[in-house]
Amino acid sequence: MGRAPPTNVAVKSSSANFSYRNGLAIGFRQLWTMLKRNTTLQIRYRRSTFAQVLLGPILFLFLLWILQKADTAQQLKSNYHPTPWTLPGIDMCQGSTPGDPCINIMFTPDTPEVRQILTTLNARNLIREPKVNLGFEDQYTDVMTVPSTTLGMVPVASSQFIYNYTLQNPNTTRFGIEFSIVDGPPKNYVYQTWFNFTNAANGTDPFGDSLLSFTRAVDEAIMLNADSSTAELQTTLKDFPLVPPSLASDEIVSSLGAMFFFCSMMVIFICVLNQIVTEKELHLRHSMQMMGLKTLVYWFAWWLSNALLVFISSLVICLFGMAFGFTMFTNTNFIALVITFFLFGMSMVTMAFWITTMVKASRTAILIGIFLFIIGLLFESMVFSNSYVGYIWYDSGTSVVAKYVLMFIPFFNFGKIFLDMSLYASGRLDTLTSTYIAGPGFHWNDLYDKIPDAYTPTYNAAGTRHPNVPPPIQSWYFMLMNIGVFAILTLYLDQVVADDYGNKRHLLFFLDPSFYGWNIRKKLSTHEWIAAQEANKTKRDAKMRSMTKKRDDIPVEDADDDDVIVERSIALNGDFETQARICNLQKVFRESSFRQSPLDKIAVKDLCLTLQEGKLLALLGQNGAGKSTTMNMLSGLTKSTGGDALFYGLSMNYEMAEIRSMMGVCPQHDILFDDMTAEEHIRLYAGLKNVPKEEIPALTEERLKAVRLWKVKDRFSRTYSGGMKRRLSMVISTLGDPKIIFLDEPTTGMDPTNRRHVWSFIEKFKQGRIIILTTHSMEEADILGDRICVMAHGRLRAIGNSIHLKNKFGAGYRISMMTDPSNTERVKGLIESMVPGCILKDDSAGALLYQFPPTSMGSIPRLVQWLEGVDGGSGSHKNSNTNSGQNTGQNTPLPRTANTDDISASLQQSSYLSTQPHFNNHSSDAEPLVHGYGISQTSLEEVFLKLIRDANPDGYQGYEVSKNNEKDQDATLRQRTTAA
Length: 980
Ligand SMILES: Nc1ncnc2c1ncn2[C@@H]1O[C@H](COP(=O)(O)OP(=O)(O)OP(=O)(O)O)[C@@H](O)[C@H]1O
Description:
Blueprint: H1 6-44, H2 46-80, E1 103-108, H3 112-125, E2 151-155, H4 159-168, E3 173-182, E4 187-195, H5 209-225, E5 231-239, H6 251-281, H7 284-290, H8 295-323, H9 327-330, H10 334-356, H11 362-383, H12 387-390, H13 400-406, H14 410-425, E6 428-430, E7 435-437, H15 473-496, H16 526-548, H17 562-571, E8 580-589, E9 601-611, E10 616-621, H18 627-634, E11 642-647, E12 650-651, H19 656-660, E13 663-666, H20 678-688, H21 696-706, H22 722-733, E14 740-744, H23 752-765, E15 770-774, H24 778-784, E16 787-792, E17 795-800, H25 802-809, E18 813-819, H26 824-834, E19 839-844, E20 847-852, H27 860-868, H28 902-909, E21 930-937, H29 940-951, H30 963-979
Parallel strand pairs: 1-2, 1-3, 4-5, 10-15, 10-16, 13-14, 14-15
Antiparallel strand pairs: 3-4, 6-7, 8-9, 8-11, 11-12, 16-17, 18-20, 18-21, 19-20
The structure holds adenosine-5'-triphosphate.
The site of adenosine-5'-triphosphate (ATP) has 12 residues, from strand 9 and helix 18.
Keywords: ATP-binding, Membrane, Nucleotide-binding, Transmembrane, Transmembrane helix, Transport
Membrane topology: Multi-pass membrane protein
Pfam family, one: ABC2_membrane_3
């Protein structure tokens, strides 16, 4: 007792075990599920997976391979094909910079014997290239004496003088020589050569020919003057004293600068890629284009705003480069430098534009950006870090094709000119001597000169084969060419690559004069236009028939409703005056771009409609019925695959630009800039619509107040609720006084109060305008729709005003009335005699409920008059219907009355019509037979449901599946399964 039984422990431990195992199992299950999800996504994003798995590694390996090949080609040439060369004579000295005066040889002691040797040396030197005459000069006695012209052989008092002089005047003296001739026998010719091996920046090469030529010349002169059998020769070499560096090295900037400044421009490049593709992905660009924005203006605006950014960025780089004291910046022409950075930045920006035309998702754009970033980085860091690899492309051994390909790469052109500039501008720290050697500087004129051999590497052992490096300005020309080529490619691909809606132009669209605004098409009269549409339809149908001839499952389509047939004949009647008409409009979404397929989706089929000013057309239909596709075609967002529409005499297919200038669109999904306020949106779109500037503030206030967004006009749209965004989209569609407005589900997500505000705004706004609205709210269609169309499977199923549709497709009216139980039978008899065919639905304690089928509609006015007592019958009452139309409880305006519809007119005059039953409590002096009554009509929703039921005899799946496609899909699937 009181002791925990061992079984409990066992149970506990087993349950812990169980939960542990269970947890592990769940963990594995989740891991497996997530792995499956990731794999599915990776397969779905196959381009990005391809880039990650194959393109990346292969591309970089390929780059490495090319570099290795280029280098190997050089190495092989050097190793296997050495060419002999003749040692030249002593060449002319160079000062700190080419052209500075210098001393060729300083010698000591100044004895006749030494002079004799040096005279021989000069004589021999004059017979060898480059035949430099090294004549004797006056003795130097003062270390402060600086040569004003280049001197030959200068005698000095001692080797100490040579030391002091070269210390005081670095990079001025080429060779120093001190003779210590010891008489023999054997006579010992001892001499020591001093040389300067730090002065390499001016083109002299201390370790190459010159020192060799000098020692050879001295030895030869000694040999020619001495008795060789009794002579010995001893020589030593010595450096000139070293001057400590006065400045740090610039090598970091010159070798890594191209890479760093490339990175700085790549920030702009990736931002541009991301911004433009995101704008495309979110359909913001489409939205602006629908509001009349021109393609050229769109790109040029982006180009200009980025040009400003790039210019500021170039200035900042150059100014800060100078502030940091980099000689690359301080020693280079400022304007040349700014222009170089600007051209590079703009060529990258234009390249980004080009890439955006081929990319639809921002994640792909970022991926491409990163790819190019890495490639460019490798390029700049490996290729342009030194002139050996940087100029390899200009060597005679490199393929010309490489040069032509590379000139289309902006970062190649930038790397080249940056290397040119840094070679001129940057000094360097000699690692052997720790001596700073200043560069001559890059001047404007240097842009036009070929890079001198002195700055280029040698590609053979003789040091004579230099790459033929073009002048720096060539890189500017190439970058300008890059800007031009990428701009043209951007404008071209922007037209021919299909957008999200499948719109694209023909590959040779630029040959079409209409592209340049020259409309050489004959303007058709309405009759001709209709005839053309009919002819096209006949052709289409014939083609379709020939395609489906062999198939036994040709869909049998239901016959069109009478009203639809009438509407079609009106639309195809050229004599009927209307502001807009749609004829045989068709949209097929193709499975394959190359051929027709049974899986093609016919979203809209041969739609014919007329539209009038001031009359709002409400489009109803099940999900996928084709409403949005119809709107998208009419608003120019999607190209139709057949048929056309005429708005105020302008063809949708050929004159969309003109139509757009008088069109406003509220798309199904809000297309708003997250980081812009409502007011900024209105200003932007009003500007695109060319609303006069001074009218914009008043317009903004009026419209935002109308949809109750005025108080939040300064908040970013991303902070808006769904309903607020919708209202803003709605208002945007009304800017610029459009004559045609498309509202695709404009009130989705709005609360009932705001919806009513929007309704009343639309109701007022529709005067003098053509408005088409799609909605899933029957109430909205009932209230706003002057005409209502119901679509299913891309076809028009019914058309008419609300009352007409209710009468035609509804179950009729219901009337409920209260009588004294004692009078019930009398009332029943009277009603049945007045309205033959009426059906008694309920009879309990004096409460009668009758349904009047559509066939008995003609009798209802009389019944109403009787109930009202207008005909003096027993239903007569003084205060009839005090609450009529109120008990919907929502101030809902009554549905419109059709002129042709007597019943509805009669009911509406007596104000008894409502979609809800309502009661009239009569007060009467005489004893009435009926104390009160209520009347209701079939709701639009019931009509809609009936039409959808009829359109889907096999049952509505909840989405659009047209019969033929479903069959075809089944057949195709069967075929595929069999084949598998
Ligand atoms: N880009 C597309 N590619 C292929 N089929 C499409 C495409 N866009 C629409 N469809 C198909 O066309 C048909 C009509 O679509 P649409 O968007 O016009 O319907 P809707 O009536 O507006 O539907 P909802 O009420 O759901 O907005 C649907 O079957 C849809 O699947």
